[in-house]
Amino acid sequence: MVEGKRSRLHYYEVTNAQHLDAFNGFPDYAKAYVPLHHYFIQALDLMYDHLRNGRALPPSQLVRTQPRGDATRPISADNVPSISDTPPPGDRITFGTAQVRIPN
Known about the structure:
- The protein contains two helices and six strands, in the order ββαβαβββ.
- With 104 residues, it is α/β, with parallel strands linked by helices.
- Helix 1 links the parallel strand 2 and strand 3 (34-35).
């Protein structure tokens, strides 16, 4: 809010993820969650490329994942799509006066 339009904040919200990735091997968790650690690594790689090479960070966005539904099914790119350089307008997170707007 203090920085306004000059803010360099980027916010990525990942659906169907939680911080305890070790639990994702259990059937009930595998039905509902994807590994959040995947996005932690991707975000670090994006920041490294930004700081090292000047690459622009992707805009703030909602990353829509798809739980695999079965712990025996391998996780694929369909389950954990990448943070996008050009997210659809309906997935962009926007910032207004004292408000963060996150799509449903």
